[in-house]
UniProtKB/TrEMBL annotation:
Transmembrane segments: none
Keywords from the named record: Nucleus
Keyword Cytoplasm assigned: no
SMART domains reported in the protein's UniProt record: Fungal_trans (SM00906)
GO molecular function, one term: DNA binding
Recorded superkingdom: Eukaryota
InterPro entries: AtrR-like, XnlR_reg_dom
Keyword Nucleotide-binding part of the UniProt annotation: no
Protein name as annotated: Xylanolytic transcriptional activator regulatory domain-containing protein
Originating species: Fusarium oligoseptatum
Length: 444
């Protein structure tokens, strides 16, 4: 049950695919099933066995994701849960389309995503996005016709937006076009989600999931900006260079405006961060929304910092890009010092950390020692954060090596943190009660 709570306060906030109460009910039915199997109650066993359907597979994947997060990476118990679910799902691509199939595909993608297997996660998400288009979930008229029941329609709508947001997140970091571009998604679906969520909140369904989510709506608006950012970054070199930089300036302005319109209680405030020993939903959402803003702002100016000539020609923009990178690193360091989120959910913060560190590294490497003199503190912060998380990510290990290259360029100017101090920040492995369940009923 603790793992279901962890899902609800982490990935479930960003991707509301499953109802936490349904997951808890399914856990109860699984233990009931195991108890009947132990007693040899065949008649009741057959009745209970009928309940092992898509919901059971969703639960296994939710628990596998949560166990992966808890362990900080690959975990034997999580892998067993994952494999026991996927053994029955190999025919998903051949079966008729359905919301359950799409939800399971996204949970599969999220499992790989939180293992930092982003390429594989992106491929699975692309398949889920195609199924959404085939079902017509991107069109309001089709959605309303296929799902006349408000609860089923709300589930379908949440599933569609979860697919879209995960696809944007994985695609923009890999520079891959979206399967569902903005013009293909009915713009009224966002307002429809708000209206239907308000209606569902008055029903008898779980208030945890049916309460309107300001954070979800903010993330949906972010997904539009992500689409514009991808288009701008992947048309670099086409047309007039200066005009393109002006467009990037305007896009940066739009990202800042988006964040300022986020409700105040969902925005990250450095002075308002409090020391927390445990994860809190509000801090998680604040951190995620801030990092979404930081990732886009850093990505916008990344191409300009990769060559010496643009840095020289665009001094004001270069300084702005460096300040954005510095601000991002300071905020991540503050969040890491005052909560366990960066360590327990490293994937949520990886992209903004990578984007900021790369921009700072590019500015120092291509802009000269003047940038190094003014960025020593931030370089140490980047080294500390990347070093803290690098053993959980091959990609971060490569970035760590690139940052260490600064020591060869400026051997007397960069102080490196002590590796032992970094690794001591890892949480100890905590075993769970899954082994008891596996021993009781190895088919689960």
């Amino acid at each position: 049950m603790a793992l279901v709570d962890q899902w609800s306060s982490g990935p479930g906030l960003l991707y509301p695919l499953v109802d936490p109460q349904k997951m808890l009910d399914k856990i109860h039915s699984i233990f009931t099933f195991a108890e009947h199997a132990r007693k040899g109650d065949i008649q009741r066993l057959c009745s209970t066995q009928m309940r092992f359907n898509h919901e059971t597979n969703k639960l296994k994947l939710v628990l596998a994701i949560s166990r992966t997060l808890e362990a900080g990476g690959w975990n034997h118990e999580a892998q067993r849960l994952f494999q026991s679910a996927t053994e029955t799902l190999n025919g998903l691509i051949w079966n008729s389309n359905g919301i359950n199939n799409i939800e399971i595909l996204i949970l599969l993608a999220l499992y790989h995503y939180y293992l930092d297997e982003e390429v594989l996660a992106g491929r699975i998400t692309t398949l889920a996005a195609r199924l959404c288009i085939e079902m017509g979930l991107h069109r309001r008229t089709v959605l309303e016709a296929k799902f006349p029941d408000i609860d089923e329609r709300l589930d379908a709508l949440r599933t569609f937006w979860s697919v879209l947001m995960l696809e944007r997140s994985t695609s923009i970091s890999q520079g891959i076009p979206f399967m569902i571009p903005d013009p293909h998604a009915d713009p009224s679906l966002i307002s429809l989600l708000g209206h239907m969520s308000s209606q569902a909140a008055l029903s008898t369904r779980s208030p945890l999931r049916d309460k309107p989510s300001s954070a979800l709506f903010a993330l949906l608006e972010w997904s539009k900006l992500a689409g514009r950012a991808w288009h701008a970054l992947n048309t670099a070199g086409e047309g007039d260079s200066e005009m393109r930089l002006d467009d990037l300036d305007y896009l940066d302005y739009q990202v800042v405006q988006w964040y300022e319109e986020v409700p105040e209680d969902l925005r990250m405030n450095p002075s308002g961060l409090k020391q927390r020993d445990e994860q809190h939903d509000s801090t998680c959402i604040q951190g995620v929304l801030y990092c979404q803003k930081a990732q886009l702002r850093n990505l916008i100016y990344q191409p300009m910092l990769e060559l010496t000539a643009p840095i020289t020609r665009n001094g004001t923009r270069t300084l702005r890009a460096v300040e954005i990178a510095k601000e991002t690193l300071h905020m991540l360091a503050d969040l890491n010092d005052k909560s366990p989120l960066v360590r327990t959910h490293p994937i949520l913060f990886k992209q903004s950390l990578v984007a900021a560190s790369r921009n700072l590294l590019s500015a120092v490497a291509n802009g000269g020692s003047a940038f190094l003199e003014n960025s020593k503190v931030e370089i140490r912060i980047a080294l500390r954060l990347v070093g803290l998380l690098k053993m959980r990510s091959t990609f971060l290990t490569q970035l760590w090596q690139q940052l260490q290259g600064l020591q060869e360029m400026y051997p007397t100017r960069v102080d490196f943190p002590d590796n032992k101090a970094l690794f001591s920040e890892y949480d100890d492995y905590r075993s769970s009660g899954f082994e008891d369940l596996f021993q009781l009923h190895p088919c689960v």
